[in-house]
């Protein structure tokens, strides 16, 4: 039953995700992956939707809205990050402390997020294909998984960054 539903909805999902992705500021494959995940979660809890095509269209639009909200909140740096190549002792200590805080936060991540983030931070500069093979997941699910893991990491690091602000 699930296989038939997936096969029947595949072309419609591809078309809907392609139509919504540009305006959402995301990749069509990422939208598709998120909607497939929503469908599988729904099948586990509530069973198949009564109107699968209607449900799918609504789910694509909901994921596109979520992606737009995320994109609006994320802004690139206005300038390059500070240069960490200075060789004075203070810079060594500050850089080591930042790296230590990042590694500690990565270790606190749930599920396979620590392994994924470690692979992304690897000095080997692994490709997505290599990372997916190392983690035993599909290359297509790597992007959405990376986004979820980075969101978790951002939430973990936010209190630490806020706590270090000078108040007075």
Describe what this molecule looks like in 3D:
Helices cover 74% and strands 0% of the residues. The protein has 168 residues and is mainly alpha-helical. The chain is elongated.
Secondary-structure element pattern, one letter each: HHHHHHH
What is the number of helices? 7
Helix % is: over 70%
How many distinct beta strands? Answer: 0
What is the mean predicted local confidence, pLDDT? 83
Largest sheet: none
Reconstruct the topology from this structure.
Layout: H1 2-24, H2 28-45, H3 52-73, H4 89-107, H5 113-121, H6 128-135, H7 139-163
Helix pairs in contact: 1-2, 1-3, 2-3, 2-7, 5-7
Q: Which labels suit this protein?
A:
7 helices, disordered C terminus, 168 residues, mainly alpha, 0% strand
Quick rundown:
By secondary structure, this protein is mainly alpha-helical. 74% of the residues lie in helices and 0% in strands. Helix 2 (28-45) packs across helix 7 (139-163) and helix 5 packs across helix 7.
